[in-house]
Amino acid sequence: GGTRVHYLCQPAGTEPPCATEIVLPEARCGGSPAEVPPRPPHSSSSSALAGASPTFGRSPAPLRRPPLQPADLARAPRGQEPPAAAAYRSVYGARLAAVEEQTYARLGWGCAEAAALAAALRSGCMRNLRSVSCLDNAIGDDGAAALAAALPSLPALQALDLRRNAVGDAGASALAAALPAARELRQLFLGGNAVADAGAAALAAALPRCSTALKEIDLLGVCPAARRRGVGVGPAAEAALRAACNARRVRVYLRHVDVTRCSYEEPPPAVPR
């Protein structure tokens, strides 16, 4: 199994940690996946797709902060910055080099938390990272664009899961522009968002320049706010995306619970003689 590491994060609503609060957990190889925290209650507020970010699954305060970088720790109060930063920096790169999977599902994150995560990903310390999931948050277009900018710094990344995150056409277009730099990416999950024709067209245009490693794009379903507004991928954009996926032998999901409409189906395995 892969190596899963949970490293120093700043708890919501607290001051930056000082030297006595630093805990560097042990790396764990194999075993079952880390338990996902319970989903926060849905917000009762409603917002338009443009402007304020939709808040499906968004809690008033994030349940867990993004990774804390040594430069952030250097600004800790109470005069303990140098020893704390030195201790953390000495193991930061070594620990993150072993990380293969990062999961930040259902934490009530917005674009600010996604941008902080993207900054950590761009540090170059996680070059062995294979999977990133921000499932069920509300990072929006700005958060998706920030993560897209980090893709060139993740040469081993194989899966990016941004389902149900209030991502619209702008976020999908930013990801599409970054896809050619993600040479090992196999799966891009964008279902349950607010991607419409422009986002689908950007993905279709990017596919000819993408690596042949890419095998699956998930645009399955839209978020409730988008559904009420009639936002979604129209027939013409859907046909163009399916054609582009067929040409590159990429499987695309666009219809709710309709796996039979995959653009590309792998041939059945040969029966050994």
Uncertain residue ranges: 1-60, 256-273
* Bulk shape: globular
Strand order of the largest sheet: 3-4-5-6-7-8
Task: Give the distance, in angstroms, between the N- and C-terminal Cα atoms.
Answer: 32 Å
- Portion of residues in helices? 25-40%
Give the gist of this structure.
Helix content is 30%, strand content 8%.
Structural commentary:
- With 273 residues, this protein is an alpha/beta fold.
- Helix content is 30%, strand content 8%.
- The chain contains eight helices and eight strands.
- It has helices spanning 70-73, 81-97, 111-121, 140-150, 169-178, 197-206, 224-228, 235-248; strands at residues 3-4, 28-29, 101-103, 131-133, 159-161, 187-189, 216-218, 251-253.
- The strands form two sheets. It has a six-stranded parallel sheet with strand order 3-4-5-6-7-8, covered by helices on one side. Strands 1-2 form a two-stranded antiparallel ribbon.
- Helix 3 (111-121) packs parallel to helix 4 (140-150) and helix 6 (197-206) packs parallel to helix 8 (235-248).
- The longest helix has 17 residues, at 81-97.
- The protein is globular, with a radius of gyration of 20 Å.
- The two termini are 32 Å apart.
- The model is unreliable at 1-60 and 256-273 (pLDDT under 50).
